[in-house]
């Protein structure tokens, strides 16, 4: 197949159908009529001698051929978009760019309100889309240009990725003020283990770090977990209406307490080693002017100096290659 004989716009249609699983929604995304998208799909089917997408109850399902094509097509489109962007400067005042950020619901609750408010004040037309995915999915989508930045306590994603520390986080215990322990300013380990708990387990490494912390304290298998939750939505109401304890990152607890007068947070009754919240991005976007604008905005909003010892701070700056860090 000669690339010179293919309309490259067909690849944009392919990507949109793959992402939306719908001819109609693909047209909405591209500003095309449904008939124009259908015609483009017909031309692609003829070119590749394959149905590419088959109608089903779940929408337009990709064939094995389409599944093999999607990664190189999306990578190619991302490279072209990056080339175009590098040819012009990013203008916040006039941009209508959409930034996709991999972040769990902790980050969405704690970081996105301030980021959205400040960003829209500088760039009124800018848009954001948050994506809650696993570490592996985030890495793959960033590799293919589908996600701009990942925010959270993610481990370093590899040699092709840059990372930048924003702040250190720790765990606290959230409880109802009406509960047996709710009037206390501190909680003993014995009372913590005697209580019933909510285990909050979002995407990312937050829960893994809590499990490691509890294991070091000898409390991992002793907690009496009544509810295991994948999302933070509704957890503050559950805690307020029950005697259950919720061990969560301090900033998430602060946001929950700020919205309810019947909640109370105290330090965890065991040693908690601070863990880093970082932003990470793929090297393909390192020189992208829009991505750089977003990274600098996030850094300016959320960066805090480390509370660790000078020795630990120095070690952070001497991480061996191929891990890359971006200075402030």
Draw up the topology in text:
Layout: H1 9-20, H2 23-30, H3 34-48, E1 53-56, E2 59-62, H4 64-86, E3 98-102, H5 105-110, H6 112-122, E4 127-131, H7 135-143, E5 149-152, E6 161-169, E7 171-176, H8 189-194, E8 196-200, H9 206-216, E9 224-229, H10 235-240, E10 245-249, H11 250-259, E11 263-267, E12 275-282, H12 289-302, H13 310-316, E13 324-325
Parallel strand pairs: 3-4, 3-5, 6-13, 8-9, 8-10
Antiparallel strand pairs: 1-2, 5-12, 6-12, 7-10, 7-11
Helix pairs in contact: 1-2, 1-4, 2-3
- Terminal Cα separation, in Å? 47 Å
Largest sheet: 6 strands, mixed
Coarse morphology: elongated
The mean pLDDT is 84
The number of helical elements comes to: 13
Helix content: 40-55%
Strand content: 15-25%
Element order: H for helix, E for strand: HHHEEHEHHEHEEEHEHEHEHEEHHE
- The stretches of 5 or more residues where confidence is low (pLDDT under 50) are 309-324
Main β-sheet, spatial strand arrangement: 4-3-5-12-6-13
From the alpha carbons, calculate the radius of gyration and give it in angstroms: 23 Å
Summing up helix and strand content along with how strands pair, one would put the structural category as: alpha/beta
Total beta-strand segments? 13
In short:
The protein has helices at 9-20, 23-30, 34-48, 64-86, 105-110, 112-122, 135-143, 189-194, 206-216, 235-240, 250-259, 289-302, 310-316; strands spanning 53-56, 59-62, 98-102, 127-131, 149-152, 161-169, 171-176, 196-200, 224-229, 245-249, 263-267, 275-282, 324-325.
């Amino acid at each position: 197949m000669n690339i010179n004989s293919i309309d490259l716009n067909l690849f944009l249609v392919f990507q949109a159908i793959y992402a939306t699983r719908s001819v109609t929604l693909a047209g909405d995304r591209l500003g095309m009529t449904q008939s124009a998208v259908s015609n483009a799909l017909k031309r692609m089917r003829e070119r590749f001698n394959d149905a590419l997408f088959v109608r089903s109850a779940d929408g337009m399902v990709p064939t094995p051929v389409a599944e093999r094509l999607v990664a190189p097509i999306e990578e190619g489109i991302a490279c072209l978009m990056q080339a175009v962007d590098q040819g012009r400067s990013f203008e916040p005042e006039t941009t209508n760019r959409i930034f996709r950020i991999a972040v769990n619901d902790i980050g969405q609750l704690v970081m996105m309100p301030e980021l959205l408010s400040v960003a829209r004040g500088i760039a009124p037309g800018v848009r954001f889309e948050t994506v809650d995915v696993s570490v592996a999915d985030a890495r793959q989508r960033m590799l293919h240009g589908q996600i701009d930045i990942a925010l959270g306590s993610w481990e370093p994603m590899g040699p092709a990725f840059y990372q930048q520390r924003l702040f250190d986080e720790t765990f606290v215990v959230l409880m109802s003020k009406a509960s047996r322990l709710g009037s206390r300013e501190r909680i003993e380990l014995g009372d913590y283990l005697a209580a019933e708990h909510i285990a909050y387990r979002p995407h990312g490494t937050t829960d893994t770090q809590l499990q490691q912390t509890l294991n070091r304290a000898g409390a991992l298998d002793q907690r009496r977990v009544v509810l295991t939750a994948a999302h933070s939505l509704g957890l503050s109401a559950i805690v307020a209406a029950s005697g259950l304890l919720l061990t969560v990152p301090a900033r998430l607890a602060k946001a929950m307490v700020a919205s309810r007068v019947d909640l109370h947070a105290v330090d965890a009754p065991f040693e908690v080693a601070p863990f880093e919240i970082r932003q990470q991005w793929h090297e393909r976007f390192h020189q992208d002017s829009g991505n750089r604008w977003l990274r600098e905005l996030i850094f300016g909003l959320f960066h805090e100096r480390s509370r660790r010892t000078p020795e630990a701070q120095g070690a952070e700056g001497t991480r061996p290659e191929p891990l890359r860090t971006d200075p402030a």
